[in-house]
Design a protein that fits this description.
Blueprint (H helix, E strand, L loop, with lengths): L20 H5 L4 E8 L2 E6 L4 E8 L6 H14 L4 E3 L4 E6 L5 H11 L8 E2 L4 E2 L5 E2 L2 H4 L8 H10 L1 H5 L9 E4 L13 E6 L8 H7 L2 H6 L6 E4 L4 E4 L9 H5 L12 E6 L14 E8 L6 H17 L6 H8 L1 H8 L30
Parallel strand pairs: 8-9, 9-10
Antiparallel strand pairs: 1-2, 2-3, 3-5, 4-5, 6-7, 10-13, 11-12, 13-14
Helix pairs in contact: 2-3, 5-10
The protein binds iron/sulfur cluster (2 copies).
Length: 366
C-alpha cells in the first residue's frame, strides 16, 4: 500500500489506535460497569483490570487554550488520553482511584467544567447529560437561533441536574438551530428547533453575480421559485414558501435569516431507545419563542419548567413520553402551565402522489 505508515488528513484515524491501553486490552471483554458517583464510571474487565471514566460537561465552543489545558491534565492523570462525547462532554481515563479527586479539582480549578452527566439505570439513579446541539450563529449559514449560547444558558440553569442524580429517568435534551435538524431533535425527551417564519430576501445583484439560477430554482421543494431571466434573477412566490432555506444553501444571494421573526419551537416526548416501548417522535408543545440573546430567558424558563414538572411527577424510570401517556396531554399542559394553541395540532397529511397543500412539512430532500 502506497500510503502505509504515512499520516494523511484523509478520513478519521482508526479508532482502536486511539483507545486507552486498558480499554484496548479489554475491548469487548468487560465484566460490569458501575456509576460510583455522579460523573465517575467504574469499568471492570474480565481480566480484573479496572478503569474509571471521569466525565465533565463543556460549553462545546472552547478555545485552543482550554483544549491545551485539558490535554495537559490528561497527560498528568489519564496517561495522555481523553475523549469528547457526542454530547460535548469530555472524559478522562484513570487507573488509579486515588487520583480521581485531584483530577476533578484540577479540571474545576483550571477550566471550571463540572463533573457529572452520568446515570445508572440498575440503581435507578439518573443525572442529566449535556445537550447535543448544532452549529448556531457561529458556523452555519441557515440558523434561526443560536446553538451553543442557548445551550450554555439552559445548562447553567440545570447545573444541579448535571452534577447530581436527581431525575426519575433518562432525559435527553437536544437543539437544532433550523429545521434541517443536524441535532437529534426529532426523537429527544425535550427538543428545541430553530424556525424561520419569513421567506428569503432576494439580493438581485448578488444572485446575478454568484448564483446558478436553474439549479437554485430546482432546489425549491415547493415550487416557490421562478427564474426572472429578463433581469437575470429569481422571484419568490411567498405563498408557496415554507422557509426551509434550501435556496439559500444553493445561492448566497437569497439570505433567509431574520432575527426579529426567527425563533424557536419546543418539542417533547421523543426517544430513540427501544426500552419498554417503541421509539417515539417528538411533538410540538411551544410553537414559537423569540430570539433573546445573550441568555434567552423565555426559552430557558420553558425548558426548566418542563424538566422540573416531569421530574416532580414521574415515576421511577418513567421517561417523559411515558409520563405523558400515563397522565394524558391535557394534564401535561395543565401541570406545565404551557398554553395549548391550534398551532400544536398535528395536521400533517400526505397523499401518495402529490402534496395536497404547501407548508405541510419542512422536509425538503427526497
Ligand atoms: S440545524 Fe440548520 S442551521 Fe443548524 S447547523 Fe444544521 S443546517 Fe445549520
Ligand atoms: S420553500 Fe425553501 S427553497 Fe423554496 S423559496 Fe422557500 S426557503 Fe427557498
Amino acid at each position: 500500500m502506497v500510503f502505509e505508515g504515512i499520516k494523511t488528513d484523509f478520513g478519521p484515524p482508526y479508532f482502536r489506535d486511539l483507545l486507552h491501553p486498558v480499554i484496548a486490552k479489554n475491548y469487548r471483554k468487560w465484566k460490569y460497569h458501575e456509576v460510583v458517583r455522579p460523573g465517575v464510571i467504574k469499568r471492570v474487565a474480565e481480566s480484573g483490570d479496572v478503569i474509571y471514566v471521569v466525565k465533565f460537561g463543556t460549553p462545546r465552543l472552547i478555545s485552543i487554550y482550554t483544549v491545551r489545558e485539558l490535554c495537559d491534565i490528561a497527560d498528568k492523570y489519564s496517561d495522555g488520553y481523553l475523549r469528547w462525547t457526542s454530547r460535548n462532554n469530555v472524559e478522562f481515563f484513570v487507573t488509579d482511584e486515588s487520583k480521581i479527586d485531584d483530577l476533578i479539582n484540577e479540571v474545576q480549578e483550571k477550566v471550571g467544567f463540572p463533573c457529572g452527566g452520568t446515570w445508572d439505570a440498575s440503581k435507578g439513579e439518573y443525572g442529566l447529560s449535556n445537550i447535543v446541539h448544532t452549529q448556531g450563529w457561529v458556523h452555519c449559514h441557515t440558523p434561526a437561533i443560536d446553538a451553543s449560547g442557548i445551550v450554555k444558558s439552559i445548562m447553567d440553569e440545570l447545573y444541579d441536574y448535571f452534577t447530581n442524580h436527581k431525575l426519575p429517568a433518562l432525559c435527553r435534551i437536544s437543539l437544532a438551530c433550523c429545521a434541517n435538524m443536524c441535532g437529534a431533535v426529532h426523537a429527544s425527551d425535550i427538543s428545541i428547533v430553530g424556525i424561520h417564519r419569513t421567506p428569503p430576501l432576494v439580493d438581485d445583484d448578488a444572485v446575478r453575480r454568484t448564483c446558478e439560477i436553474p439549479s437554485t430554482v430546482a432546489a425549491c421543494p415547493t415550487g416557490a421559485l421562478k427564474p426572472d431571466m429578463k433581469n437575470k434573477t429569481i422571484k419568490v412566490d411567498v405563498e408557496k414558501c415554507m422557509y426551509c432555506g434550501n435556496c439559500y444553501t444553493m445561492c448566497p444571494g437569497m439570505p433567509l435569516f431574520d432575527p426579529e421573526n426567527d425563533g424557536a419551537a419546543i418539542l417533547v416526548g421523543g426517544k430513540v431507545s427501544d426500552a419498554r416501548r417503541v421509539p417515539e417522535l417528538s411533538k410540538v408543545v411551544v410553537p414559537w419563542v423569540p430570539n433573546e440573546p445573550p441568555r434567552w430567558p423565555t426559552l430557558v424558563k420553558y425548558i426548566k419548567r418542563i424538566l422540573e414538572t416531569w421530574a416532580a411527577n414521574a415515576n421511577k424510570h418513567e421517561r417523559l413520553i411515558e409520563w405523558v401517556d400515563r397522565i394524558g396531554w391535557e394534564r401535561f399542559f395543565e401541570l406545565t402551565g404551557l398554553e395549548f394553541t391550534q398551532h400544536l395540532i398535528d395536521d400533517y397529511r400526505i397523499t401518495p402522489y402529490f402534496y395536497s397543500e404547501f407548508r405541510a412539512t419542512t422536509q425538503f430532500r427526497w
